[in-house]
Amino acid sequence: MNLSFSLAPEALFYIGSLPITNALLWSFLASLFIVTITLAVRFRLKEVPGNLQNVIEILFEGGYDFVKSTIGDEKKAKRAFPLVFTMFIFILTANLSSYLPGMGAFKLLKESGNVSLFRVATSDYALVFVLTMISIITIQFVAIFTHGPFGYIKKFINFSSPLAFALGLMDIVGELAKILSLSFRLFGNMFAGEVLGAVMLALAPFFIPLPFAFLGLITAVIQAFVFSLLTLIFISMASTIEENETLESVSP
Q1: What is the spatial distance between Cα 201 and Cα 147, in angstroms, rounded to a whole number?
Q2: 23 FRET partner, CA 20 to 30 A, in 100, 117, 138, 193?
Q3: Which of 115, 99, 97 is nearest to 107 (CA)?
């Protein structure tokens, strides 16, 4: 038995100097699948919905109600919902694509050996990092819009007292920690699940891998939900005006 795992995805081919990896390819296909389903429903809307339209409407309504109940404000919910829901659907689709039957059997013959055409997109840290940075940058823009540029800077750099300065430094560390919190959790769980599944399949290819596959399926759904939920919570926190800010704004 010869098992080898790489943190970096394998390059399938190149477009100029741009490597197209197996993880990148499947992220494109996941995106294409989502866009196709969305357009199919969009141009076939009916007053009496069919099965597919029913499922999409349930997902949208349930997702929006959850965002609204979490963030606590309908105006904020309407602004946050598109980003949070899109991330959830994309990550969920990418995660669940690993359970399509026969995907692990497709190989590309290269000089260095056989390269799998399929790799879970979210087991590539580069992709997860990009998703994380989209969330983090959005959170910072929300904070700037809510508190104003000077209020935003004052949160991190405040010389009014030694305690305020120390708390500002802690806030900077907290913002950096959000990057690790979002990216490492999703990447670590999906990569570990991919490795564990491959090991179990190689050791006992019949019945023993089934419980691990079921566990991986649950993890795939939970991680999509957790990433989106944390993004929503961070946006909600960034858009909250604290009591001391309100007092400062009304004070003469």
Answers
A1: 53
A2: 138
A3: 115
Give the range of the structural domain holding residue 76, as residue numbers without chain letter. Answer: 11-245
Q: Helix, strand, or coil here: 46?
A: coil
How far apart, in whole angstroms, are the C-alpha atoms of residue 119 and residue 240? Answer: 39
Pairing of strands 107-110, 113-116: antiparallel
Q: Is residue 250 part of a domain?
A: no
Contact 83, 236 (CB under 8 A): no
Domains held by the chain: number: 1
> Does residue 4 sit within a domain?
no
Sign, Cα dihedral of 31, 36, 38, 39: positive
Crossing angle between the packed helical segments 162-203 and 209-238, to the nearest 10 degrees: 160
Residue-wise pLDDT for 200-224, tens only, equals 666 666 666 677 777 878 888 899 9
What's the CA gap between 11 and 28, in Å, rounded? Answer: 14
The structure tokens 């939920």 sit at 229
Does any domain span residue 251?
A: no
242 pLDDT band, cuts 50/70/90, is low
The model's pLDDT over 150-176, given as tens digits with 9 standing for 90+, comes to 888 888 888 888 888 898 899 899 888
What pLDDT is stored for residue 139 in this prediction? 92
Contact between 22 and 116 under an 8 Å Cβ cutoff? The reply is: yes
Task: Please report, as a single letter, which amino acid is at residue 106.
Answer: F
Q: Is residue 105 part of a domain?
A: yes
